């Protein structure tokens, strides 16, 4: 019943509730609420609230100096510390960008090369999930994963487990997509699409 109430409020009142909450209690408390709900297993409620709160967390100054450009493909930032998928998503949006979405085999290779400069090949959070429906993988831009241009799963994935809702990429030789718990802490990759201008007016579409 409590979960239904949270979802109902998020659906009916949208940004008005999020704005009021943030203005009265501050963004830090709003984010703490999101993470607290996540740790209690309210995955869908968290996703709904996070979608409402993301626009409120966006930084005024666009921090693109941490991003590395792969010519003709994209610009990427590899995190310096592991976070949950929810926290990782908020960090990327704070830059005015979004968790990386792989659109081709070439981009899979590019992301792996960028990640492997910093860490041993492994799993990193990227921008897709199945928080809406167990067998419905969706990007953080709300497009079907099947339309992304890259849907090769790492051997053994997806698990389609009821506790593994968030997307990863394996950056090794047999690179591919994977799923894991959104509450695990992992390194992650943010992306600036090439078509996005690098100026202070940039804003993420992940809102």
TrEMBL record:
Listed CDD domains: CLECT
SMART domains in the cross-refs: CLECT (SM00034)
Protein name, per record: C-type lectin domain-containing protein
Highest taxon listed in the record's lineage: Eukaryota
InterPro entries from the UniProt entry: C-type_lectin-like, C-type_lectin-like/link_sf, C-type_lectin/snaclec_domain, C-type_lectin_CS, CTDL_fold
Gene3D superfamilies: Mannose-Binding Protein A, subunit A (3.10.100.10)
Biological source species: Timema monikensis
Record's keyword annotation contains Disulfide bond: yes
Residue ranges occupied by any C-type lectin domain in the UniProt entry: 76-191
Keywords (A to Z) from UniProt: Disulfide bond
